[in-house]
Amino acid sequence: KTIVSWSGPEGGNQDFSIESNAVELKSSKSTNQSVNISSELQLDWTIFDNLFLYVIDLNEVINGKSTLCHLIQEIKKKISKAPFLLNLFQDKLNHVGITKAEEKYYDDLGYVIRSQIAFKVQDGFPALTVSILDNEAIHKVKYQIDLTACKPFEVEIESVINKMK
Predict the structure, then answer these.
(1) Which end of the chain is more exposed for a tag (fewer CB within 10 A), N or C?
(2) 47 CB contacts (<8 Å, ≥6 apart)?
(3) Would the pTM of this model clear 0.70, i.e. be above it?
(4) Residues near 67 by beta carbon (within 8 Å), at least 6 away in sequence
């Protein structure tokens, strides 16, 4: 279901969506406790039963083993017996500009997960939505959210995974 729900490459407002649940994924290499939001639609929880903001902090490792290329190959190996999923995954990679021939260019820099945190985006969460803006002339709003202000909305990572199954 993860590959099918990966909607970001096709222009989805959230990175993953399935049924009435969605996840917006943010990754960061900095120690800055804020994330960039690219539109007023990205954290608009009003159209979902559950919308989560999932933040992963990373460290870069030159010549590390956990590269994007390695991750792509690992996923392909896991779904190799499901041709539909394999083709769908490659199509989505192509949409984000990582063709099969270009995968090798993503093998020099590895990543180590430093921390992960998830928040349920709901009423009261510090986010702009279409209804809050309530103006057809204002759109494509970009802003930053200070994650320390989101602590009351923190949820267990496992609960996010369970909602997306």
Answers:
(1) C
(2) none
(3) yes
(4) 106, 107, 108, 109, 110, 111
